[in-house]
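Researcher: We're teaching a course module on how sequence relates to structure. For the next exercise, students receive a sequence and then see the predicted structure as tokens, so they can try to spot secondary structure elements on their own. Here is the exercise chain.
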Amino acid sequence: MDEANLIDLLKEIRKKYYLKLGNSTEYCVKDYFVLSDLVNKITKKPLEKKLDELNLFLSADTVFQSIASIKPQFLAISETSGYSQITIYTPKGTSVSALKFVGTDYNSSEKNELKNYWLNYYNNRITFKGEATYAYNCHAYAWYCSEGHSYVWINTPGDDTFWNDGSYVLTNTPDENCKVSYLGCDHSAITSSRNGYFISKWADLPLFEHLPEDCPFAYTGLKYYTYPDPTYNTVPPKPSVKTFRKDNDQSFTAAVSCDSRYNVDQYEWKSDYPSDWSIVAQNASKSSVKVYRSSSPRSCNLSARAHNSYGWGEWQVIGWLYASSTYSLSVLQNPVSSTLQVQIAPNAETQTLQDGAFAMEVTKQRPILSKPSTYSIGLYSSTGTCVYQNTVKGQGESAVNLNIDVSSLLNGIYILHVKTADEDAQTLNIVVKH
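Model: And here is the predicted structure for the students to work with:
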């Protein structure tokens, strides 16, 4: 059996071994030494005996059980012997449980042996960066020690805390010293100044610079993290309005957003008259809501604000909640014989402002909608035939006046139909009489 076949075989054994022990707290790459010894013992025997024993190794649970018995010695650091519990903190101040090594470390000969073993294993494609030691592991190096902190050992899921609390954020454009999380296995690294290379600590083994695939950790993908832009290390700004519309006479729909770099985790909503309007969240972050009116609601502002790990931002007025129509429909003369004069006048509501404890009332008129509406206008016979149709744009706070020629229509009752995009239609019965 040549060297290439041995390496392939070793990888297959390692894969099955790792799957069997996949629920371990921390996987230690020293299983290579254990498996290598086993393979060497097997391959010293005659070919027929080799194949029989290898097949047995790859299939028999009893063999896996015997391998698993090695776990306390070679799978670290689920056992805390030689370690003391300490608490460290992420850049945002979130506490993380860690271990400080207080036991006996490798001696110089062992460190040198481990270094040379892995350099030879990868044919010197990797670069030695630091001695083997029990003092820190991959997670500790990537997320903590490489930032200038003392050596500790961080077990999973402690490493997750560094991105879950926003201390580091995902990036699609990694540069030097980005953090790397290996998907599908329990390993962390940092990016190197050498393009395409990582630096990582291999459990209690040495620290190496290497290509992503040149390490003992199989993975299905990579995620890169970096420090958030300091500009966004603050409470969120006032949210932007994505949607605000009146669905019908009973409800509104509203939605807001903030720049994703502020890492907003939730929104809060309020109306000036909470007892008159019910606000119902449409998603977990409450970025979208439905607002339902009571039987006799007072018109008022709907406001929202955003929250992240730094706290709450300022309130932003999102829209004006109202129960009445935004416009009044009228005609100058009815019955009519030649020209039907239609007027569409935007409604204005009286808003009462109170000045402190003296409750001095000041009233002002304000249009219900801040932007002009577009009106779809139709005139229909009693049988439903459309005899006139037009679309006109509102003039802000000014009334829209429209003349409809009815001189050619037969005598009878007609229906004037006016609708905006956000409201139910208004109708008037028109009598044409020549």
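Model: If you want an answer key for the exercise: Residues 237-321 form a domain with the Immunoglobulin-like fold (CATH 2.60.40.10). The first strand starts at residue 83 and ends at 89.
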